[in-house]
From TrEMBL:
<dbReference type="InterPro" id="IPR016346">
    <property type="entry name" value="G-protein_beta_1-5"/>
</dbReference>
<feature type="repeat" description="WD">
    <location>
        <begin position="124"/>
        <end position="165"/>
    </location>
</feature>
<feature type="repeat" description="WD">
    <location>
        <begin position="82"/>
        <end position="123"/>
    </location>
</feature>
<dbReference type="InterPro" id="IPR020472">
    <property type="entry name" value="WD40_PAC1"/>
</dbReference>
<dbReference type="InterPro" id="IPR036322">
    <property type="entry name" value="WD40_repeat_dom_sf"/>
</dbReference>
<dbReference type="InterPro" id="IPR001680">
    <property type="entry name" value="WD40_rpt"/>
</dbReference>
<dbReference type="Pfam" id="PF25391">
    <property type="entry name" value="WD40_Gbeta"/>
</dbReference>
<protein>
    <submittedName>
        <fullName>Guanine nucleotide-binding protein subunit beta-2</fullName>
    </submittedName>
</protein>
<dbReference type="GO" id="GO:0007165">
    <property type="term" value="P:signal transduction"/>
</dbReference>
<keyword id="KW-0853">WD repeat</keyword>
<keyword id="KW-0677">Repeat</keyword>
<feature type="repeat" description="WD">
    <location>
        <begin position="55"/>
        <end position="81"/>
    </location>
</feature>
<dbReference type="InterPro" id="IPR015943">
    <property type="entry name" value="WD40/YVTN_repeat-like_dom_sf"/>
</dbReference>
<dbReference type="InterPro" id="IPR019775">
    <property type="entry name" value="WD40_repeat_CS"/>
</dbReference>
Length: 219
């Protein structure tokens, strides 16, 4: 359900319904060419939904047991545990300076966490269903979201509130992923209707569907 490369590209972490996070060393392979396992983190009480590397030795995980954990991969131990969501943690995005991160949950909230002490610094509300995706802008001042409530939103950390609401004219499908352009002027969301939608963040104008994927005829 989730995968992440370390910044160096030396390691990849992945996990899902097996309630485990596995880290592979892509530069070290067995006789069949499969990357060797560097570390396996077990003990999750729900599926692994998201993981992000801080560096080659630090990894943050989010899971369906409502927990967020910072791991020391060299020692194979949990350093920090963040608790606060009232439902499955579904999505995660690191702040550009890697001192904080945001998480989205089925409890309809987005929380901003301090990596250094594991404390929740801010909680953002507005969505009416699961927050499936969160994405920081490169400035670190705000982030975008995509939700099952068929909306995408923009939240400003400095203002501590929502500053943008984006919907499609048809309003038929929820959103499973989101991304912001470098300028922040465009927000993109992938939806359950196999399309990618685009909006002008300042005008809150739907720019249309820029890509549509059809699986008909594929066996």
């Amino acid at each position: 359900m989730t995968a992440s490369y370390s910044p160096s590209g030396n390691f990849v972490a992945c996990g899902g319904m097996d309630n485990m996070c596995t880290v592979y060393d892509v530069n070290s392979r067995d006789s069949t060419g499969v990357p060797k396992i560097r570390r396996e983190m077990m003990g999750f009480e729900g599926f692994l939904s998201c993981c992000r590397f801080l560096d080659d030795n630090k990894l943050i995980t989010g899971s369906a047991d409502m927990k967020i954990m910072l791991w020391d991969l060299e020692k194979g131990v949990k350093e920090v545990e963040c608790n606060g969501h009232a439902g499955d943690v579904i999505s995660m995005s690191l702040h550009p300076d890697k001192t904080s991160f945001v998480t989205g949950s089925v409890d309809r909230s987005i929380k901003l966490w301090d990596i250094r002490d594991g404390d929740c610094k801010q909680t953002f509300w507005g969505h009416e269903s699961d927050v499936n995706s969160v994405c920081f802008h490169s400035s670190g001042f705000y982030f975008g979201t995509g939700s099952d409530d068929k909306t995408s939103r923009l939240f400003d950390i400095r203002a501590d509130q929502q500053i943008g609401l984006y919907q499609t004219p048809s309003n038929k499908s929820g959103f499973t992923s989101c991304g912001l352009s470098t300028s922040g002027r465009v927000i993109l969301c992938g939806s359950d209707d196999s399309a990618v939608h685009s909006w002008d963040t300042l005008k809150a104008k739907h720019n249309g569907t820029i890509l549509q994927i059809s699986f008909s005829g594929i066996s």
